[in-house]
Amino acid sequence: MPIPRLVAFDLDDTLAPSKSAIDPRIGELLVELARRVEVAIISGGQLQQFRSQVVENLPPTSAEVLGSLHLMPTCGTQYYRLSAAGIETVYAHSLTDDEKTRAMAAVEEEARRLGLWETETWGDILEDRGSQITFSALGQTAPLDAKVAWDPTGEKKNALREAVAARVPDLEVRSGGSTSVDITHRGIDKAYGMRQLSKQTGIDLDDMLFVGDRLDPDGNDYPVLAMGVACHAVEGWEDTATYLEGLIPTLPVRV
Fold first, then answer.
1. What DSSP line would sit under 130-153, residue for residue?
2. Residue 165 φ/ψ, nearest 5 degrees
3. CA nearest 75: which of 25, 16, 134?
4. Which of 111, 167, 183, 189 could form a disulfide linkage to 116, CB 3.0–4.6 angstroms apart?
5. What is the pLDDT of residues 36-67, one digit of tens each?
6. DSSP class of residue 56?
7. Cα–Cα distance measured from residue 91 to residue 40, given in angstroms and rounded to the nearest whole number
8. Could you tell me the CA-to-CA distances from 154 to 11, 17, 25, 159, 179 in Å, in that order?
9. What pLDDT digit, counting tens, does each position of 66-115 carry?
């Protein structure tokens, strides 16, 4: 592909292990990449995850480099930019109170019916992220090994997703991370986020590159591949770091 003007990343299991801070190696690489192209992170997670996993672990850099970083929580229904002053809101499109109430009731009732409502958890199972309701089977702060072991085939998540989708047909219900199901407005996925990113930055989708770990047809990164954006599949943050170490020297420095 031609030299990208923007490189976008999934967060969990692409830049860092699920809900974990980025490694210093990734932090350095993101800053070096942002000296050359626009850099975006698109995830189903909420802003606080972006803050604690990425922003607070970036090495010191200039305001110009920070200005090249774009944060898109909840698959792009929220959009933030970085500056020397901190995180600045560009937009945030929230669910209505009625949509939130119906979504939370549907996911809890269906999880209980399917035997997926766990009693031993780490943190809240249901979370209101403003523009997204998220069900995390083991809680928001469950350890990685427990999350991986809970549903290795994705069968539990897919069953819950289908059951909840039938209950709230006016909303979008998608498999999220390793133990999560996300509920948003219709048409919200990472392809939506990429289109919003193009609209906000003026950069054509053909000039973008997306890096993610779930580009398979059942994965939450797949909508980006399906819309025709150039993609690179990785397996974990170490794979991403190795890929960036090869990519960055091919890109001219801007700032």
1. SS-EEEETT-TT--HHHHHHH-TT
2. -60, -35
3. 134
4. 111
5. 999 999 998 889 999 999 999 999 999 999 99
6. G
7. 15
8. 19, 18, 30, 9, 8
9. 999 999 998 888 999 998 888 999 998 899 999 999 999 999 999 999 99
